[in-house]
Amino acid sequence: MVTPFLNARDFIFQAQNKMDLEEQKLLLQKAFDQFTTATNAVYTDLKTSADHLAKLTIRSFFRNTKQIQNYMNFLALDMQLATKFVGVYMQVLDYLGDNQSVQLISARYQYVLKDFFTKGIGKKNISADEILQMNYPYTESNRFC
Question: Count of CB atoms within 10 A of residue 115's CB?
Fold first, then answer.
């Protein structure tokens, strides 16, 4: 998932060093293709991790707390990556003057976030956000931050 993003970044760096506009656009189009792959991968990983976390948290007793914490960390990382990937993706599209695609990418990102916060998953049919909230290891020092 990170590799296509790094590939896209390299294409952007190459485009910055080109004087010919057609070469720049070709390299930025290659970056666009890599961003498509990267964002699809992170969205898929986000859904897969959320579904797996839902399965791990079905039972109230005899839970594998370490595994639950790992999946919570995966979800946090996926959310960060999705935000970064989409932000840079939209900048490239804006530079290319493709405002319609910028709107589509933004709408898709918003749809993924809306699902994360509102769509019920697992047997309990609650959102991934609610699962995170219910399973976060709160303490006195982090409870009211």
Answer: 18
